[in-house]
Write a structure and sequence with these properties.
This protein has 3 helices and 5 strands; from the N terminus they run βαβββαβα. With 109 residues, the chain is an alpha/beta fold. The protein binds 2 RNA strands through strand 4, helix 2 and helix 3.
Length: 109
Amino acid sequence: MDNTLKLNKDFKRLYYRGNCIPCHNVVVYAQKNKLGKTRVGLTCGKSVGGAVLRNRAKRLMRESFRTLSPRLNGSFDIVIVARSRISGKKCDEVLRDIKYAFKKMGIII
RNA sequence: AGAGUAAGUCAGACGGUCGCGGGCUACCGAAAGGUAGCGUGAGGAAAGUCCGGGCUUCACAGAGCAUGGAUGCCGGCUAACGGCCGGUGGAGGCGACUCCAAGGACAGUGCAACAGAAAAUAAACGCCAGUUUUGGUAAGUGUGGAAAUGUGAGGUAAGAGCUCACAGGGAAGAUGGUAACUGAAUUCCCGUGUAAACCCCAUCCGAAGCAACAUCGACUGCGUUUGCCUGCUCGGCACAUAACGCGAAUGAUGGCUUGAGCCAUAAGGUAACUUCUGGCCACAGAUAGAUGACCGUUUAAUACAGAACCCGGCUUACGGCUUGCUCUUUUA
RNA sequence: AGCGGGAUGGUGUAAUGGUAGCACUAGUGACUCUGACUCACUCUGUACGGGUUCGAAUCCUGUUCCCGCUG
């Protein structure tokens, strides 16, 4: 992972201006940037569950982004939000959702 | 076989491919850092934040009183505790066993709705004597959570622990025990409950919390020194430059993990626990917060659940396995 | 993470340990030619689990949920 989004204002900018693709388990916001590297932020609200479930969801999202990252087409700011349905899901299903969203936005080829 | 009760233990392991945090070593690099190798990386509750302690800052000569808070049978253990162990007393269970905020109602104040004569200085109805308001008396009176020792006999004008027997309770305290307590002889019949109401007694307690706090640099702000308004004081203005001090907010680094530590043996103790000797540190230290994905083998390995300054407890959530003991039923 | 406060009908809000009250809402009836207003009646309760007490919304304790402060 190249870089992470940390500031609240970056998240707000993406929620306001970025393209939004909701899937079954996650919601993906994305926007092109001119930094030359891709930055990703993961959020996981309290509605997902306790600390164990939230950590698990973040790991699944991070892993699926890692498997997709060699196929990136340019540099983007991406925010992935976990929905409450993600608890108990396997890596395959999360990966499928993120892949579908990325393809639709043209992030990966 | 079923039901129950108590204690203990585990929380997956191994191999392969990719990936993440910290440490050590080597090499490259001016440095930041990078590469390679080695080894390591969540719990029994990490949770709730309910107690206690360490650590840090602030306050503080010392002692006492008052106010406030906490605890409350006895002995022991512990750094300390509201914790643990052993006992005493009480409650529950056929039993194994479990549970108990368990001091004081002869210091004082309060409360006890409704019902009931009366809820605490008992006497309204009643009974008896006497005769028109006086004495004696407490047997009886739909209540209530609680009613003034209970039952029987004697006794009497009527009655009454007034007397006796049995039962109950209080005082007293032999004996045993470190103590809580146990409760023999003797003696008395003596006005309720509530302290998780205020309170009294005994013991303990300064406050806040790692987002504490310390260090560093930069920006900006304020104050003083300085100049001017004016001879002085107060006040106001200027800070372009220099020095010193302070600080709400901001950033970075430290605090940060070796500790009342873990393991094994032996000894003391009923036990909690303590001590000796040896060994280990290969026992997490992240900072938007690291443990994952896929495949295979095996297994009882599934549930509850993720460290955030650190320890000792308590409480709550929850899967499996083992062992001791108790009760019931059936068979031999 | 560290602290502090709270939970009462559908909503808002009272209540010294002793019958849980008020307003709005909802329902039924009356009034009216009909509706509204008004009047009468009714329904719906102390977050959950234990304990102290004769008796807990209240006192004590555990759990759940919500809110606030520090950032």
